[in-house]
Structure formats: C-alpha cells, structure tokens
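Entry, Tuesday afternoon. Goal for today is a structural model of the target with fe (ii) ion bound, before we commit to ordering more compound. Inputs were pasted exactly as handed over by J.K., no edits. I checked the ligand SMILES twice against the vendor sheet because last time a stereocentre got dropped in transcription.
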Amino acid sequence: MVEISEHAEPDHSSGNQLPLGLIDIHSHLIPAIDDGCIDVTESVEAIQLLIRAGYVGSICTPHIWPQQFPRNTAPRIEELTRELDSRLDADGITYQLWSGGEVRLYEGIVDWLKVNGVPTLACSPCVLTDLWDGGWNRWVIEVFEWLLANHYQPILAHPERMPPSRGTWRMLQDVVQMGVWLQGNFRSFTGEEGYNAGQLVRQLVFEQQFKFMALDTHRPGSLVGRFDGMQLMVEECGQAVVDELTMYAPRRHIFGMSQ
Ligand SMILES: [Fe+2]
C-alpha cells in the first residue's frame, strides 16, 4: 500500500535487482485468502511451474471484495506476501514476490478505500481493479476519476471477460482516454473464457489497447490453459509483442526501470 500525496514516482528500489524475465502482475498465489491457491504447497507448486515457463516474479493480487473476502486488506496481504516469500527462501527457491490486490469495483468502493487504504502494486501508484458489472453505470467512471485525482494509476483487469454489452467497446475507449490502463488475460485466447472474450482480447491486442498481459494465476492446475493462451498469443501476434507486455512493460510502468 502506498499513500499518494503529490505526483508520485514508482519506488525503483524493489525492481532494481530484478533479473530479466517474465513478470506476472496479476496472481492469486497467496494461500487460502481467496479463490486462488488453497495451501502453501499449491503456492510453491504454482511458482515452480512459473519459473519453468520463464517467470522471475509475481505481484500477489488477492481479491479485495469486502462482501466476499472481508479480511483482505493491504496490510494483511503485505504480511502474507512476506510469509510466502520466507517459505520460498527456506525452500531455496529464487523468485520475486510483491504485494498488491485486485480491487473489485462496486458502488461504494471509494468509501471502503478511504477507510482501509488503497492496495497498490509493488510500491507503485498502480491499482489493479476488476469489474463484472456490464452496465457501465456512472459510478464506475467516478471511481476511476477518484483514483486518478488522488494520483493513483488505475488498471482494469481482463476487460475482455466482462459481460458482453453493446456499449463495452465505446466505454473501454472512454476509460483509456481518461487514463485507465488495460490488462488482458492470456487464457482468453483459448476460448475457455467464452467466444466473446476470445474475440475482444484479440481486438484489444490488435488495437494496442493493452498495457500488460497477465496469467491471472490461480491454482496450479489452471496454469496449463493459461500457458496455452500465452502460446496462442505468441503464434498469432509474435514473441516480441508478448515480451513487451509481460517482460518490459511491467519493468517500465510499475518498477520505473528503463529496461
Ligand atoms: Fe484475478
């Protein structure tokens, strides 16, 4: 969690030692805190699969949704990320973890953030959000406006998975225009998220609307399909595009690194 008062710059210190490799900016690796890994054994198993696939680090982004997971706050996630990191050290596994959160957008979330703090990604001003309301009510824009006005950088996770709505494309253009960044999920390429998600993820990649692509890692068993989606994107869009969105963009935009 980072308190933003003025025009905040990313904290470079956390990324300085980072070896070149893929970074998953959206993951549910922390055990037993949401619908991700159910215990630490699964967390370690998932991380070993990520390492084999070329990942060097993950930002832990458990769901922050008070109605479903009332105990999930930034301080708790920071503490549990440190615990998982210690377990990796004890097991001799070299892998970077940072804390964050995936903030469910709903009417009233700003009041919750004012009381409980704003969970940011790895000491950057970035705030990962998800939205399942396909209606694009006015409050959605107001939440983004509040974050931007307070010098946070909102990121909307996997917009391609939102309920299909005739206004979705236009609204995505509007939120990008106001300064919101978009993050796509690799698995949407496989069809497992539905036909519409497969179409929209390709359109957003083609139009260069995504700032990042992520695995949105949950339990280790789900990684096969997520890696399949990444492979499909490599075949359709080229390795350079995937590297930019998973290796270089997180370094620049979250860790403030030149490379
Ligand atoms: Fe997620």
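Confidence is low (pLDDT under 50) at residues 4-14.
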